[in-house]
Amino acid sequence: MAPIGLARGRSSFSQRHPSPHVDSVLFLTTIAIREKDSSVVITTRKPSAIHTVKKSQHSSTIRPRSGSRRVSGIVSRYASKDYRPDLRKFALARASAVLASTKEPKPEHEKKTRGKKALKA
């Protein structure tokens, strides 16, 4: 298998070009997954309007308290449509990382005293 080169772009997961065995003409759409106002935003490009900038983008927002199963299902559905199949797992990894970053950390529990210190108290 040929080496994979570096690619530029916000939507390029792991900065990889497709391998020569993957026909890149078929996979014109790109997908960007980011966080906005504690929700996950998935932005895709329409292959029919690839040369225009704003009109070619379609964004969908997943509400903040959605679970990981819902987010991964939506991302895998977007990634399976006209998207590079070798980068689906990177898209799912980015979506789960964005979802994890939006959650507030749990408060730390107080440590229970044990042994002699517990008997003294």
UniProtKB/TrEMBL annotation:
<feature type="region of interest" description="Disordered">
    <location>
        <begin position="1"/>
        <end position="20"/>
    </location>
</feature>
<dbReference type="GO" id="GO:0006412">
    <property type="term" value="P:translation"/>
</dbReference>
<feature type="compositionally biased region" description="Basic residues">
    <location>
        <begin position="112"/>
        <end position="121"/>
    </location>
</feature>
<dbReference type="Pfam" id="PF01778">
    <property type="entry name" value="Ribosomal_L28e"/>
</dbReference>
<protein>
    <recommendedName>
        <fullName>Ribosomal eL28/Mak16 domain-containing protein</fullName>
    </recommendedName>
</protein>
<feature type="region of interest" description="Disordered">
    <location>
        <begin position="51"/>
        <end position="71"/>
    </location>
</feature>
<keyword id="KW-0687">Ribonucleoprotein</keyword>
<feature type="domain" description="Ribosomal eL28/Mak16">
    <location>
        <begin position="30"/>
        <end position="100"/>
    </location>
</feature>
<dbReference type="GO" id="GO:1990904">
    <property type="term" value="C:ribonucleoprotein complex"/>
</dbReference>
<comment type="similarity">
    <text>Belongs to the eukaryotic ribosomal protein eL28 family.</text>
</comment>
<dbReference type="GO" id="GO:0003735">
    <property type="term" value="F:structural constituent of ribosome"/>
</dbReference>
<dbReference type="InterPro" id="IPR029004">
    <property type="entry name" value="Ribosomal_eL28/Mak16"/>
</dbReference>
<dbReference type="InterPro" id="IPR002672">
    <property type="entry name" value="Ribosomal_eL28"/>
</dbReference>
<dbReference type="GO" id="GO:0005840">
    <property type="term" value="C:ribosome"/>
</dbReference>
<feature type="compositionally biased region" description="Low complexity">
    <location>
        <begin position="62"/>
        <end position="71"/>
    </location>
</feature>
<keyword id="KW-0689">Ribosomal protein</keyword>
<feature type="region of interest" description="Disordered">
    <location>
        <begin position="98"/>
        <end position="121"/>
    </location>
</feature>
